[in-house]
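Notes to self after the Tuesday call (sharing in case useful).
The group wants a holo model before anyone commits to mutagenesis around the pocket. I volunteered. Ligand is 6-O-phosphono-beta-D-fructofuranose. Logging inputs and output together so the record is complete.
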Amino acid sequence: MVEGMFRPLEAVDVSGILPRGGTILKTSRTNPFRTEGDVERVLAHLAGFDALVVIGGEDTLGVAARLHAEHGAHVVGVPKTIDNDLSATDVTFGFDTAVSIATEAIDRLHSTAESHDRVMVCEVMGRHTGWIALQSGVAGGADVVLIPEQPLSVERCCELIGRRHARGKDFSIVVVSEGWPLTFDEETTGEVVGSADTDAFGHVRLGGIGERLGGEIERRTGFETRVTVLGHIQRGGSPTAHDRVLATRFGVVADRLLTSGGWGRMAALRGGAFTDVPMADAVAELKSVPAELYAEASAFFG
Ligand code: F6P
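Result:
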């Protein structure tokens, strides 16, 4: 939309994309509000269209919400991110696929963990929320799950691993979310590990906490520890059946919004029902993992 690169999409162009991940349009997160003149360019291009369907997470939909609120743009949103961190919808598409891939990885890590009496640390994505870590951790029977919202300390993590070993379980699986701050008992705010570069939305590129945590666990417990970083594996390949149906049904809601002129609204799933919500509500704040949900899961740690 900034550069005015368009192509007509007929039914024949989108036929066959259901089992594919990624975007066939090759679009990527761009912040037109950051570069002078970009918003005007987007609006000029939009003038040639009836409406724009915006598919993405908090950054992409945040831009769409502003285009609507500040410039009256005819936009309709569809919630898509593996992070599942959009408010006003119970779930985003992409999330179930990421959780399924991470769960399978955890299952596979169990083999080496158990065979060689190791601690296996698995670093997953999710940015500043721990949805992927928590869901895959619970599904994969992880022994400790570390998420940004409820930063359990390194000491507590080691204690839980030690407790398992004392019970005769000589291996452990630790799932850590990329945004978990390296937290020690004596510190109030831990370090979030990532590269110093920021993207167009001011986000640092997260990653690397797994290695740091693995080193701490090995040094403190004396147990051999290995680290796996799932990275982009968890958001690639074939989507789960659940995500395909979710995306399709969100598409039906988006179509309804287009025909009824529901500008500034987003398709959503709430309490099992497909509906639509103001896009601004979805991006007002991150949907974080509730404390009760984490507390429930932590009953299975150690
Ligand atoms: O927001 C989705 C996400 O996969 C995050 O979980 C992750 O931190 C980020 O994108 C990675 O982005 P990139 O591929 O640009 O490094």
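Two things stood out.
Residues 95-116 form the longest helix (22 residues).
Residues 57, 81-83, 125-127, 178, 205-206, 235 surround 6-O-phosphono-beta-D-fructofuranose (CB under 6 Å).
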